[in-house]
Design brief:
Elements (H helix, E strand, L loop, with lengths): L16 H8 L10 E7 L5 H14 L5 E4 L9 E4 L5 H4 E5 L6 H13 L9 E7 L6 E7 L6 H11 L13 H5 L11 H36 L1 H19 L18 E8 H10 L4 H19 L7 E8 L12 E8 L6 H16 L7 H8 L4 H12 L4 E9 L4 E2 L2 E9 L7 E8 L2 E8 L7 H16 L4
Parallel strand pairs: 4-5, 8-10, 10-13
Antiparallel strand pairs: 1-6, 1-12, 2-3, 5-6, 7-14, 8-9, 11-12, 13-14
Helix pairs in contact: 7-8, 9-10, 10-11, 10-14
C-alpha cells in the first residue's frame, strides 16, 4: 500500500466555495449531501481493537477531529478547526441486528442512518460496527459529509484507514505519520475569534483580489489586442459551452419516477470488473461507459414492465477534475447532465452513445463552470442558496457515479473486507447509483426514493438483467 500522509487529507482549513455551498444547503432535505459506505466483513472484529484502529486513524488524519465553524455572515467560507471536545465514543458505535441478520436488514438500517443529518457541531463523520449478520459476518457503516470529501477522496481515506493484512494493530497507517512527533499545538481557536479572523482576511484580501482581477483583465486585454479574432472566437466558444453545461436536459422527467419523497431505500449489486471492462471494450467503450449502459438498461426494463417505455431519461453525472496537484480529500469535481438513451435496447449501441457524450463533455471549454458560479452562490443567504441549488438538481431522474477503488483486499481491525458498497446522497433525483471497484469486483449501491420505486424485488431483477445485457457483450 502506498504510504500517504494523513495530515494533508482534506485540503485547506477554509472550505472551497463548492464545499461551502454543500455545507450551507445541508439543512434542506432536497439538497442534503451526506453519503455513506457499507462494508461487508468476513467476521466481527474485536470491539476494543476496532475502537483502537479508529483512534489511531483520527490522530493520523487530523481532519477527522475537525468541526466546522460558520461565520456569522456568509462573506467568507466556513472553516475546519480542531474540535477540542472530540469524543471518539460518539462517532464510533456498534449495533446488533436481530435474527436472522440478512443483508436486507443491514441495508435497511444503513438507509435509515444515512438519511439522518450529522450533528453540525461535531466532526462530520460517523462509523458503526453492525454485528449479528448471518454466517458470522459483520457490517461496517461509514457516513461522511460531502463537504469533507468527494468519492475519490474517500477512496484515499479508505486506503489509509484500512490494512493490507489482518495482523494485530488495527489499521495500517503511514509509518511517517505514526512515527512523527506531534507538532506543538496552537492555542484553541474559539468560534468568535475564528470568525473575526476570517472576516478580517476577507476584508484584507479584497484589495489584493481586486488588483489580481485587474491584472488578469489587463493580461487578457493585451492578448486580445495581439490576436483579436482568435480571442473573440474562444470567447464565443466558451459562452456556447457554458450555455450547454447550464441548460437542463431536453427530456421530460419520467412519471413513473415522480415520487418526491425524502426517504432512502438501498439495494446493491455485484459485477465482475474484468467482465465489465471486456464488455465496454467489445463495444468500443470503457468500464464507465459499460457501467452507465447497464444502469440505463435497468431503468429501460423497469419502465417496460409497467407498460411505460421511455426513449430518453434526464440523467446527471459527476465528473472528476482532480490532478496530481490537488490535495488529498476535499472536493474537485463538476457535474454534467444529458439526455440518456434509455430506450435503446442494444447494449452495444447504448455504450457507444454514452461514450460519445462523455468524450464531448470532457472536451467542453466550460467543463469547470462550477468554479465560476459557486463563489457567488456560496455567499448568498442560505434560503436563497438552497432554493437555487434545489432548482439545479431537480431536473434529473437519475444520477450515476463511478469511483475507481482499491485493487487489492484490505482488512479492518483484523476482519477482511468482502465488499464495499457506496451509498451516495440523492439531492433532487429519484435514484442515485454509485459504483466503486474493489478487489476485482464492481460494487454497485443504489439509493432510491421508496415512494417512486415501490416494487423492490422487481427493481432488483431489472438491475441484474440490465447489467447482464451488457456483460453478454464480453461472453
Amino acid at each position: 500500500m502506498t504510504e500517504l500522509d494523513g495530515r494533508g487529507w482534506g485540503g485547506p482549513a477554509r472550505m472551497s466555495p463548492a464545499e461551502a455551498l454543500m455545507w450551507r444547503a445541508e439543512g434542506d432535505l432536497r439538497t442534503r449531501s451526506s453519503g455513506a459506505l457499507v462494508e461487508l466483513l468476513d467476521t466481527a472484529p474485536d470491539w476494543h481493537r476496532f475502537l483502537a484502529a479508529h483512534d489511531r486513524a483520527t490522530q493520523a488524519i487530523p481532519r477527522l477531529r475537525d468541526r466546522v465553524v460558520e461565520p456569522l455572515l456568509p462573506v467568507v467560507e466556513p472553516t475546519w478547526t480542531e474540535d477540542t471536545h472530540f469524543d471518539l465514543s460518539y462517532h464510533v458505535q456498534r449495533i446488533r441486528l436481530p435474527e436472522p441478520g440478512t443483508l436486507r436488514q443491514l441495508l435497511d438500517l444503513a438507509g435509515q442512518l444515512t438519511s439522518r443529518p450529522l450533528d453540525p457541531n461535531r466532526p462530520q463523520w460517523e462509523a458503526i460496527l453492525v454485528e449479528g449478520l448471518e454466517d458470522g459476518r459483520a457490517g461496517y457503516l461509514l457516513k461522511v459529509h460531502h463537504a469533507m470529501s468527494d468519492g475519490l477522496g474517500m477512496v484515499q481515506l479508505l486506503g489509509m484507514a484500512h490494512s493490507e493484512t489482518e495482523a494485530p494493530g488495527g489499521a495500517r497507517l503511514p509509518a511517517s505519520v505514526l512515527a512523527a512527533a506531534p507538532a506543538p499545538s496552537a492555542p484553541p481557536v474559539t468560534p468568535l475569534s475564528l470568525v473575526a479572523d476570517r472576516l478580517w482576511e476577507g476584508i484584507a484580501d479584497g484589495p489584493g483580489q481586486l488588483l489580481g482581477t485587474a491584472g488578469r483583465a489587463l493580461g487578457l486585454l493585451g492578448r486580445a489586442l495581439r490576436d483579436p479574432a482568435g480571442n473573440a472566437e474562444r470567447a464565443v466558444d466558451y459562452g456556447q459551452s457554458l450555455r450547454r453545461m447550464l441548460t437542463p436536459p431536453a427530456a421530460q422527467r419520467s412519471p413513473l419516477l415522480a415520487g418526491g419523497g425524502f426517504g432512502y431505500r438501498l439495494t446493491v449489486h455485484d459485477v465482475s470488473l474484468d467482465e465489465l471492462k471486456a464488455a465496454g471494450k467489445a463495444a468500443g467503450g470503457s468500464v464507465n461507459d459499460a457501467y452507465l449502459a447497464g444502469v440505463l438498461g435497468a431503468f429501460r426494463l423497469y419502465h417496460e414492465h409497467f407498460g411505460q417505455p421511455l426513449d430518453q431519461l434526464p440523467m446527471a453525472i459527476p465528473i472528476s477534475l482532480r490532478d496530481s496537484s490537488d490535495p488529498m480529500g476535499g472536493n474537485r469535481f463538476t457535474g454534467a447532465r444529458f439526455v440518456a438513451p434509455v430506450g435503446e435496447a442494444d447494449p452495444a449501441v447504448r455504450i457507444q452513445l454514452v461514450r460519445e457524450f462523455i468524450v464531448n463533455v470532457r472536451a467542453e471549454p466550460a467543463i469547470a463552470f462550477l468554479d465560476l458560479v459557486t463563489p457567488v452562490l456560496s455567499k448568498l443567504p442560505t434560503p436563497v442558496l438552497t432554493e437555487l441549488t434545489a432548482g439545479l438538481t431537480k431536473v434529473s431522474d437519475v444520477q450515476a457515479s463511478n469511483i475507481p477503488g482499491l485493487g487489492h483486499p484490505v482488512y479492518l481491525a483484523g476482519a477482511k473486507v468482502l465488499r464495499m458498497y457506496p451509498i451516495g446522497p440523492r439531492p433532487g433525483v429519484t435514484a442515485m447509483v454509485t459504483m466503486v471497484s474493489y478487489d476485482g469486483v464492481c460494487c454497485i449501491g443504489v439509493n432510491f426514493d421508496p415512494e417512486a420505486i415501490t416494487d423492490l424485488e422487481l427493481f432488483e431483477s431489472c438491475l441484474r438483467d440490465g447489467f447482464d445485457e451488457v456483460l453478454a457483450l464480453a461472453r
